[in-house]
UniProtKB/TrEMBL annotation:
It comes from Dysosmobacter welbionis. Gene3D superfamilies: lambda repressor-like DNA-binding domains (1.10.260.40). Coiled coil: none annotated. CDD domains: HTH_XRE (cd00093). Residues 11-65 form the HTH cro/C1-type domain. It holds the Pfam family HTH_31. GO terms for molecular function: DNA binding. This is Helix-turn-helix domain-containing protein. The lineage of its organism: Bacteria, Bacillati, Bacillota, Clostridia, Eubacteriales. SMART domains: HTH_XRE.
Length: 73
């Protein structure tokens, strides 16, 4: 499975665990809803600073988000 697809799936799962909407996440990241949706669908590369922010926000590692590890912390 490709990295962007894994990233999107894990991002969605983490968002769902917190009962957040895609629009909520777009607001947190200060991006458009469409751009956030593309992140979850694995259609765009994510800047490294955004990746780090998301890892901190969800208390997981960047390796977990990218599918390089199954360990969250």
């Amino acid at each position: 499975m490709e990295t962007l697809k894994i990233f999107g799936e894990r991002l969605r799962a983490l968002r769902d665990e917190r009962h957040l909407r895609q629009a909520d996440m777009a607001e947190v990241l200060q991006i458009t809803l469409v751009h956030y949706q593309r992140m979850e669908y694995g259609k765009v590369n994510v800047p490294s600073l955004t990746l780090c922010f998301l890892a901190d926000y969800f208390s997981v590692t960047t390796d977990y988000l990218l599918g390089r590890s199954d360990a969250r912390g």
